[in-house]
C-alpha cells in the first residue's frame, strides 16, 4: 500500500527496503505542482522537464538528511523554486540578448503553443505573466495557480507576508494593465 | 476550499475581469506524468551525489585565481629582491662593510680629513648663529642711529 502523508513518505524513504517505492510515491504526489511551477517560470516543456529532473534528483540526494526543521512540502517547494531561479540565472548569463529581449523570447515561446489563442483571456494572462520580474512572477504563480496561502509562501521564500501581498498586488495590477491594453 | 475563496475574493478586488484558473491552458506531451516517476527514479539513482564544498572552483573562475596568484607572486619576489631582506645581509652587512673600510684607513689620514672638511672645522653652535644674525641685522644701520636709539631707551636693570 502506498503511503500518503509526507511523514509516512519520509519514514518509508529512510528505510532502504522501501526507499524506491517512497520516492516514486513522492514524485507522483508532487510532480504536477512542481512541473507547472517550472513550466510557467521557464516556459518551454524541455526546460521545465530539466528543472523537474534537477529538483527530484536533489530531493533524492537530500531527503535522507532532511532535518524536519520545516514541512516536507515547504522543503520540496524551496528546492523547486531555487532550481527555477538558478535555471533563469544561467539562461541570463548564457544569453547575449538583453533582459527585455529575453522576456520577449519567453512570450514568443508561449505563442508557439499549438493551442495558443490570442483572443482568449487565459492566454493573455500567460503572456502577461512573462512580462513580470522573476520574483513577482514566482509570487503570482504560487498564489494564483498553486493557490498557496501567504503564510506558507512566507516560509518558502523567507519573505514577510506583507511584502508578498504587496508583490502579488503589484503583479496583479501589471497583469490587469496588460490585459486591458492587449 | 477556504483558500480558493480567499484567492477568488482577492482577485475580484484586484483584477475583476480575471476568473480563477480552472483548466490549464498550456499542454503537456501525452503520457508525460505517467512516465515521469519511473524515469526520475532511474535518473536519481544514476546521478552521483554532489559533495558539499566550501566553494566550487569552476573552470571559468580558475583563470582569475591563477592570474591573482601570479601577480601576488611577482610582487612578493620583486619586493624581496629589491629590498634585499635576506637574513644576515641588508643593513647589517652595510655596517660590517663600513667598519672594515674605516679600520683599513690610517689615523693620520682621518685626522687630515677632519681638519680640511668644513663640516668638521667650522663651529656651528646656536650661539654663533645668533651672533651672525644680529650682525646681519645691524650692518646697514649707521652708528649714530644706534647711539640715539640707545640714549632714548629707559635704563632698566637686567634680572
Backbone structural class of chain A: mainly alpha
Low-confidence stretches of chain B: none
Global shape of chain A: globular
Per CATH, the architecture of the largest domain in chain A is Orthogonal Bundle
Helix content of chain B: 55-70%
CATH H-level homologous superfamily name of the largest domain in chain A:
RNA polymerase sigma factor, region 2, helix turn helix motif
Strand content range of chain B: under 5%
* Biggest interface, residues from each chain: A-B, 42 and 31 residues
Please, what is the average pLDDT of chain B?
76
What string gives the helices and strands of chain A in order? HHHHHHHHH
Q: What is the strand content of chain A?
A: under 5%
Rg of chain A over CA atoms, rounded to whole Å, is 18 Å
Distance between the termini of chain A: 51 Å
Number of separate domains of chain A: 2
Classified by CATH, the class of the largest domain in chain A is Mainly Alpha
Order of helical and strand elements of chain B: HHHHHHHH
Would you give an account of this structure?
The complex is a heterodimer of chains A (182) and B (159). Chain A has 182 residues and is mainly α. Chain A folds into two domains: 1-94, Orthogonal Bundle (Rna Polymerase Sigma Factor, Chain: A); 97-182, PhyR, sigma-like (SL) domain (Butyryl-CoA Dehydrogenase, subunit A, domain 3), CATH 1.20.140.160. Helix content of chain A is 75%, strand content 0%. In chain A, helix 2 (19-42) crosses helix 4 and helix 2 (19-42) packs across helix 7. Chain B has 159 residues and is mainly α. Chain B has a domain at 105-149. Chain B is 65% helix and 0% strand. The longest helix of chain B is centred in the middle third of the chain and has 25 residues, at 59-83. The radius of gyration of chain B is 48 Å and the shape is elongated. Chain B starts with a helix and ends in a 7-residue tail after the last helix. Classes of the chains: A mainly alpha (182), B mainly alpha (159). Chain A binds chain B through residues 20, 23-24, 27-28, 31-32, 35-36, 39-40, 45, 52-53, 56-57, 59-61, 110, 113-115, 120-123, 125-126, 143-145, 147-149, 168-169, 172-173, 175-176, 179, and chain B through 3-4, 6-7, 10-11, 14-15, 17-21, 24-29, 33, 36-38, 40-41, 43-45, 47, 49-50.
Amino acid at each position: 500500500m502506498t503511503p500518503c502523508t509526507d511523514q509516512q513518505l519520509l519514514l518509508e524513504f529512510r528505510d532502504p527496503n522501501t526507499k524506491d517505492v517512497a520516492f516514486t510515491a513522492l514524485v507522483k504526489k508532487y510532480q504536477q505542482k512542481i512541473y507547472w511551477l517550472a513550466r510557467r517560470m521557464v516556459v518551454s516543456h524541455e526546460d521545465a522537464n530539466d528543472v523537474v529532473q534537477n529538483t527530484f534528483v536533489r530531493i533524492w540526494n537530500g531527503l535522507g538528511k532532511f532535518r524536519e526543521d520545516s514541512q516536507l512540502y515547504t522543503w520540496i517547494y524551496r528546492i523547486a523554486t531555487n532550481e527555477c531561479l538558478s535555471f533563469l540565472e544561467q539562461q541570463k548569463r548564457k544569453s547575449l540578448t538583453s533582459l527585455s529581449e529575453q522576456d520577449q523570447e519567453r512570450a514568443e515561446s508561449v505563442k508557439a503553443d499549438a493551442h495558443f489563442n490570442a483572443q482568449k483571456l487565459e492566454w493573455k494572462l500567460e503572456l502577461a505573466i512573462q512580462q513580470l520580474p522573476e520574483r513577482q512572477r514566482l509570487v503570482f504563480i504560487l498564489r494564483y495557480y498553486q493557490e498557496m496561502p501567504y503564510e506558507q509562501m512566507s516560509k518558502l521564500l523567507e519573505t514577510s507576508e506583507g511584502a508578498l501581498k504587496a508583490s502579488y498586488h503589484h503583479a496583479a495590477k501589471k497583469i490587469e494593465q496588460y490585459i486591458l491594453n492587449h | 476550499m477556504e483558500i480558493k475563496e480567499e484567492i477568488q475574493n482577492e482577485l475580484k478586488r484586484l483584477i475583476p475581469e480575471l476568473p480563477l484558473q480552472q483548466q490549464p491552458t498550456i499542454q503537456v506531451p501525452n503520457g508525460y506524468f505517467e512516465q515521469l516517476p519511473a524515469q526520475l527514479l532511474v535518473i536519481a539513482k544514476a546521478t552521483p551525489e554532489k559533495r558539499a564544498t566550501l566553494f566550487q572552483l569552476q573552470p571559468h573562475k580558475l583563470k582569475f585565481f591563477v592570474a591573482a596568484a601570479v601577480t601576488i607572486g611577482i610582487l612578493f619576489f620583486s619586493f624581496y629582491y629589491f629590498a634585499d631582506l635576506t637574513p644576515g645581509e641588508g643593513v647589517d652587512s652595510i655596517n660590517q662593510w663600513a667598519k672594515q673600510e674605516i679600520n683599513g684607513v690610517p689615523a693620520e689620514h682621518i685626522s687630515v680629513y677632519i681638519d680640511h672638511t668644513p663640516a668638521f672645522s667650522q663651529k656651528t653652535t646656536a650661539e654663533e648663529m645668533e651672533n651672525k644674525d644680529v650682525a646681519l641685522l645691524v650692518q646697514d644701520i649707521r652708528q649714530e642711529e644706534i647711539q640715539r636709539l640707545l640714549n632714548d631707551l629707559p635704563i632698566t636693570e637686567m634680572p
